[in-house]
Amino acid sequence: MYAAAISFLMRCYSLNLRTLKSALYYESMKEFTEAVEIATATIGDVALGMGRARRTVHQYLAAERTVTPEAAQAMTAYLRLRSEQFTAAADRLEAALPQEEQ
C-alpha cells in the first residue's frame, strides 16, 4: 500500500523518490521537534497553566507555602490538559512517520 501511494505521487506530481523521502523526513522532524517542546514544561509553564504566579509555585515546591485544595485542583486540571496535549502530539508524530512496506 505504501509503495503504491509513493508510485502514485511520483507519477502525478513528477516527484522523485529522493524529494518524497526528504518531505517525509522533514514532516516527521517537524512533529518530533514540536513534541519535544510540548513535553518540556518549565515552572513558569506550570504556573501559567495553573493560573498561579511563578513565585507561588516555587513557594509550594520549597514548602514555604501550603498547597491549598484550590491549588491542587488547578494542578489536576493542568495535568489533565497536558495529558491531552501529549496524546495529540504523539498521534501527530506517529502519523508523520513513514509506514513500513508490507
Description:
This protein is mainly α. It has a domain at 29-96. The chain contains 5 helices and no strands. The chain has helices spanning 2-13, 17-39, 43-50, 54-61, 69-96. Helix 3 (43-50) packs across helix 4 (54-61). It starts with a helix and ends in a 6-residue tail after the last helix. The mean pLDDT is 81.
Total count of helical runs of at least 4 residues: 5
Distance between the termini: 7 Å
* Beta-strand share of residues: under 5%
Beta-strand segment tally: 0
Order of helices and strands: HHHHH
Outline: elongated
Weakly predicted, low-confidence segments: none
Task: Give me the Rg, rounded.
Answer: 21 Å
Helix/strand/pairing class, anyone? mainly alpha
Major beta sheet summary: none
Fraction of residues in helices?
over 70%
Summarize model confidence as the mean pLDDT. Answer: 81
Quickly list its features.
single chain, 102 residues, mainly alpha, 5 helices
Question: What's the helix and strand layout?
Answer:
Blueprint: H1 2-13, H2 17-39, H3 43-50, H4 54-61, H5 69-96
Helix pairs in contact: 2-5, 3-4
Quick take:
With 102 residues, the protein is mainly alpha-helical. The chain has helices at residues 2-13, 17-39, 43-50, 54-61, 69-96. The protein contains five helices and no strands.
